[in-house]
Amino acid sequence: MRLLKTLLLVVATLALTGCASVKGLKNFAECKFNFNNVSDVSVASINVQRVKSFKDLSLSDAPKIVQAFTKKNVPLNLNVNVSVRNPNDQDARLDGLDYILWIDDIEMLTGTMNKQMNIGANQTGTLTLPFSMNLLDIFKKKTASSLFDFACGLATDNADASRVKVSIKPYFTVAKKVVKFPSYVTIGGDKLMPKKKQ
Predict the structure, then answer these.
(1) What is the 3-state secondary structure (H, E, C) of the chain?
(2) Dihedral pair phi/psi, residue 92, rounded to 5°
(3) pTM of the full structure
(4) What pLDDT, on the 0 to 100 scale, is given for residue 73?
(5) Rounded to whole angstroms, how far apart are CA atoms 23 and 6?
């Protein structure tokens, strides 16, 4: 992903601040992002990466999904892992980010993470973004089994993780002020226009 163009507006406003701070921002803007995978997918505390569908659940696990559905709380938890490559000869950093999680081009979740990250010169690091949501907040008309099967399809052992993408807007603290990138950058998934929540 190319963040450098969007960063020019930020750098212009920081011209009078510390040189090192601006350099750290510029270095992060020049980092290259790659979508790695989706990991640690679970529904109602059941690890879906060991099963393929609702019908594969054990006699002890199936009632957990039904009970969660009855209580109108079907929690989905997953991690999205993004590789960040810093090609510069100095460190790159961020202090946090705003995010949007998309699955099948549907907006699933928005929020802010206070997640600091520092990538050494000419190094590659992994940015792990943990997400947690109630599937019934997004899919109000699905059955318990179809919600579980949806989650199973996200596990990298069962399906192509390109169904998932994240949009991030990094922010930094410069001269005791929080400065955000002017726009979101999307990593992973396809390039279709996003849909709103259903």
Answers:
(1) CCCHHHHHHHHHHCCCCCHHHHHHHHHHHCCEEEEEEEEEEEECCEEHHHCCCHHHCCCCCHHHHHHHHHCCCCEEEEEEEEEEECCCCCCEEECEEEEEEEECCEEEEEEEECCCEEECCCCEEEEEEEEEEEHHHHCCCCCHHHHHHHHHCCCCCCCCHHHEEEEEEEEEEECCEEEECCCCEEEECCCCCCECCC
(2) -120, 145
(3) 0.79
(4) 93
(5) 15
